[in-house]
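#struct-pred
JK: can someone run the complex with zinc ion? inputs below
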Amino acid sequence: MAGYKHPCRYCDKLIPPDSNVCPLCGKVNPLGSFRCPKCRSPIKKEWKKCNNCGLDLEIICPKCGKSAFFGDYCFNCDARLTVVCPNPKCKFEQPPISDKCAKCGKPLKVRR
Ligand SMILES: [Zn+2]
Ligand SMILES: [Zn+2]
Ligand SMILES: [Zn+2]
Ligand SMILES: [Zn+2]
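RT: done, structure tokens with the ligand placed:
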């Protein structure tokens, strides 16, 4: 099956089957199913919660403020669904899972 290409789920162009990033549109996880940002288990677009860890899969996009499915990107504005820690010494980029930084514990501005 070497050389067999799969369509990117974002741009629909055919890309190599082992791509972690789409070489054409630059988005991460272009192949396969959506994954929970917390536990990385496969999730479905119509789910409200992750069946493995119970994470709320409906979130408010930090960029456009609209309610979005918690995949890697917002379907409304195409922004990557991550927040950056406001601590200048940390700046850790993470999915908006909790209201505290996963690295330094400083409160994050996450709207839910
Ligand atoms: Zn693509
Ligand atoms: Zn999960
Ligand atoms: Zn958005
Ligand atoms: Zn931090």
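RT: quick notes.
The beta strands are 6-7, 14-15, 34-35, 42-43, 58-60, 67-69, 83-84, 93-94.
The mean pLDDT is 89.
JK: thanks, will look after standup
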